[in-house]
Amino acid sequence: MSWTETLFNVKKPIISMLHLQPLPGDPLYKAGASMRRVIDLARADLHAIQDGGVDGIIFSNEFSLPYQRRMSFVTPSAMARVIGELMDEIRVPFGVDCISDGLATIELAAAVDASFARGTFSGVYAGDGGFYNNELSELIRRKSALRLDDLKLLFFLNPESDTNLDTRSLTEIARSLVFKAAPDALCVSGSAAGKGVENELLAQVKEAVPETLVFANTGCNKDTITEKLKICDGAVVATTFKVEGKLFNPVDPERVKAFMKPVYALREALK
Q1: Domain extent listing, the chain
Q2: Of 80, 107, 204, 271, whose Cβ has the fewest other Cβ atoms within 10 Å?
Q3: Would you state the pLDDT for residue 193?
């Protein structure tokens, strides 16, 4: 039995992102904004996501644009406050993602007792935010030093929007990463948030590392999720759950329920 079946009690889990509003220190955290409003909106999304039937949640600072490679202390501190205030209302296993900062992600996971964490923990990338060199060995050692033996790490295999400076094929990178770091899952992305990942790419990665869980990381919707889950082991979902399927909108519980219907049907077929 895979760790996802043990943690989520289902095959092919659907993990929803919970996008926090801009946080103190973020350029989009405008005059008049408050942590109380951030928490209230996060609470509304949390209940909409859970009522829709997802299997897990990842709290992320989605709107801390532009992202910091080494984020200010205020960002994970604010994230920890939100999660702490909502802790008694969280009904499913949860994880964290301090976007673009793997070290902050692991340390936040330790502070809030997250079951898993998603992040860019490996590789060298270039993009709008500049040069991005992940210290994989440092991150894995920090996880060990914090005694996070049970924390599951979901590695971005190809982060959205940035260009990988590693010239090897994605399947070669996947094999190497599994050998060196033993990730608990690999997340395969499209070109940006909300952009679907090609089925062929998902299949190639899964074939390359058949013993490692592979997640579709972007762009899944109710019309494509069945085919995606026939190839991979689960999905991380966000944009399609929002009102009108738009990134900056709040979560619509009816869209979540509509998405989960074909997922339930596929699971029944797998029994």
Answers
A1: 3-270
A2: 271
A3: 66
Q: Which fold has domain 3-270?
A: TIM Barrel (3.20.20)
Residues comprising the chain, all counted = 271
Percent of the chain whose predicted confidence (pLDDT) is above 90: 87
Per-residue pLDDT band for 192 (boundaries 50, 70, 90) equals: low
